[in-house]
């Protein structure tokens, strides 16, 4: 499909994430998480769609995700003159996309309250996502394009996800591009506006999920790799989930604006893995249900407060120790690059103790407490097959350590390894006859610490 883009188009992209440390604990504001932003990104290109005629005072917002069959969602929008007419109404036939819908509704409400004069324009949103987000089993090879984005035979509902946080990256990119389109005098990347984009994206993501999660995925989609601790869950009041519960469009829009412009009192400290270390994400091809696991863990916590507190305190100390070791390594690399190069050269196989051994210990310690939570809460956070896989990975030369990322479960592992050994590690697992590696696919990605970024339109030529 060749898409013509006019010069007024704007494009933004946001990264996926790996929650390396702090799963579950990050649901509470007193704990922090370490989130790595990934090179796998989702792009949104917004432009005016002039060829569509306006009917009955309704404006059209058409979203296209051309990499997927039936990837088209057309919404109509009023002009703000009656009660719910600023809420997008789906008019196309292929089923809904709650994240897109909530992103549109939230940014339209904010732009209305901010006096945008662009809300009467018909809009087109084009979405492109990097391959690592989805299984490539149904990929269609197109002989005509050398594009970075590949196309699928099936609709997005039927293509398995790899768990990198596609909805958070999609919501963030769409919000930033629409924000820039509706409020052309504001640069979404200007730090004070970036916080607004973040708050809008959190609000939209919570609306679409009908719950307030920890928000670490939106935080890293906006700010990139971060040490994150959450905002207070109760700042998002229920009426913000449903514009129909508020008596007027103006009132709803003002509620959104007030929330978006308030101080969310959360922490997002930029971070980055030490040089010479790389993150590997392994897709294990079976899925777990995060919400169900989170409710099992929270249930365990509620029923066993003293014990859960003890375990979480120790797990939090282990998470902090890991982050401190990574920080110490980055500092050493900066202050004494020669010793740092020698350290990487010696590797973890060197018998005299070095900071790489300490890093491995940090991972093993985190896993110890995740396994205690697995046994005691019955949520399969690090189930036995994942224990076996992670232990096997630790035996491969160049691997420093690894964990089940995020909520854990069967579907993924995250490994930190020496950058110089990445190809050898991939060759090792693909040639190995060990059953532990048989379902493992390394995703094509690395850390890219940058969050939201503006993109050049030339990236989408010939798509
Ligand atoms: N490339 C895309 N185009 C359109 N919608 C997308 C795209 N990627 C993700 N989405 C939306 O996000 C949803 C997936 O979100 P979710 O189930 O929370 O998974 P994840 O863990 O990847 O965030 C999809 O069902 C779809 O609504
Ligand atoms: C349990 C959690 O703390 C972490 C879940 O992390 P994942 O990365 O597993 O999440 P999904 O992308 O939603 O599947 C819940 C939360 O923080 O919201």
From TrEMBL:
GO biological process: ergosterol biosynthetic process; farnesyl diphosphate biosynthetic process, mevalonate pathway; isopentenyl diphosphate biosynthetic process, mevalonate pathway
Cellular component terms (Gene Ontology): peroxisome
Segments crossing the lipid bilayer: none
Pathway: Isoprenoid biosynthesis; isopentenyl diphosphate biosynthesis via mevalonate pathway; isopentenyl diphosphate from (R)-mevalonate: step 2/3
Residues covered by the GHMP kinase N-terminal domain: 152-224
PROSITE patterns hit by this protein: GHMP_KINASES_ATP
Domain of life: Eukaryota
UniProt keyword annotation of Kinase present: yes
Keyword annotations: ATP-binding, Kinase, Lipid biosynthesis, Lipid metabolism, Nucleotide-binding, Steroid biosynthesis, Steroid metabolism, Transferase
One of the record's GO molecular function terms: phosphomevalonate kinase activity
EC number: 2.7.4.2
SUPFAM superfamilies: Ribosomal protein S5 domain 2-like (SSF54211)
Keyword Transport: no
PANTHER family listed in its UniProt record: PHOSPHOMEVALONATE KINASE (PTHR31814:SF2), PTHR31814
Similarity comment: family membership: Belongs to the GHMP kinase family. Mevalonate kinase subfamily.
Stated name of the protein: Phosphomevalonate kinase
């Amino acid at each position: 499909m060749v898409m013509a883009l006019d010069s007024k188009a704007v494009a933004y992209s946001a990264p996926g994430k790996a929650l390396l440390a702090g799963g579950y604990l990050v649901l509470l504001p007193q704990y922090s998480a370490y989130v790595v932003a990934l090179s796998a990104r989702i792009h949104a290109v917004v432009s005016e769609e002039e060829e569509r005629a306006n009917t009955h005072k309704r404006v059209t917002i058409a979203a296209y995700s051309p990499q997927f069959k039936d990837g088209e969602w057309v919404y109509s929008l009023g002009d703000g003159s009656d009660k719910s007419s600023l809420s997008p109404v789906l008019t196309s036939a292929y089923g809904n996309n709650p994240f897109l819908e909530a992103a549109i509704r939230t940014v339209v409400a904010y732009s209305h309250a901010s006096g945008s004069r662009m809300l009467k324009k018909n809009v087109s949103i084009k979405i492109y996502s990097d391959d690592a987000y989805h299984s490539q089993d149904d990929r269609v090879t197109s002989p005509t394009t050398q594009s970075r984005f590949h196309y699928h035979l099936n609709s997005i509902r039927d293509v398995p996800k790899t768990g990198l946080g596609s909805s958070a990256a999609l919501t963030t990119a769409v919000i930033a591009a629409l924000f820039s389109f509706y409020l052309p005098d504001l640069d979404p990347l200007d730090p004070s506006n970036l916080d607004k984009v973040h708050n809008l994206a959190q609000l939209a993501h919570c609306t679409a999920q009908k719950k307030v999660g920890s928000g670490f995925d939106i935080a890293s989609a906006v700010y990139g790799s971060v040490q994150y601790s959450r905002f207070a869950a109760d700042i998002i009041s229920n009426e913000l989930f449903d514009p129909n519960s508020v008596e007027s469009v103006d009132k709803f829009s003002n509620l959104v604006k007030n929330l978006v412009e308030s101080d969310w009192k959360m922490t997002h400290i930029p971070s980055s893995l030490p040089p010479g270390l790389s993150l590997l994400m392994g897709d294990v091809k079976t899925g777990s249900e995060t919400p169900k696991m989170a409710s099992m863990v929270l249930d365990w916590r509620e029923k066993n407060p003293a014990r859960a507190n003890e375990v979480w305190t120790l797990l939090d100390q282990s998470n902090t120790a890991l982050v401190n070791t990574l920080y110490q390594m980055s500092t050493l690399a900066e202050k004494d690059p020669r010793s740092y190069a020698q350290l990487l050269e010696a590797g973890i196989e060197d018998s005299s103790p070095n900071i790489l051994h300490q890093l491995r210990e940090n991972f093993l310690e985190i896993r110890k407490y995740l396994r205690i939570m697995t046994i005691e809460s019955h949520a399969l956070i690090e189930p036995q097959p994942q224990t076996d896989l992670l232990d096997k990975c630790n035996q491969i030369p160049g691997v420093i350590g690894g964990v089940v990322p995020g909520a854990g479960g069967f579907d993924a592992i995250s490994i930190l390894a020496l950058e110089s050994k990445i190809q050898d590690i991939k060759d090792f697992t693909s040639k190995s006859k060990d059953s532990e590696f048989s379902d493992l696919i390394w995703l094509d990605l690395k850390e890219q610490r940058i969050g939201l970024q503006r993109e050049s339109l030339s990236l989408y030529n010939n798509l």
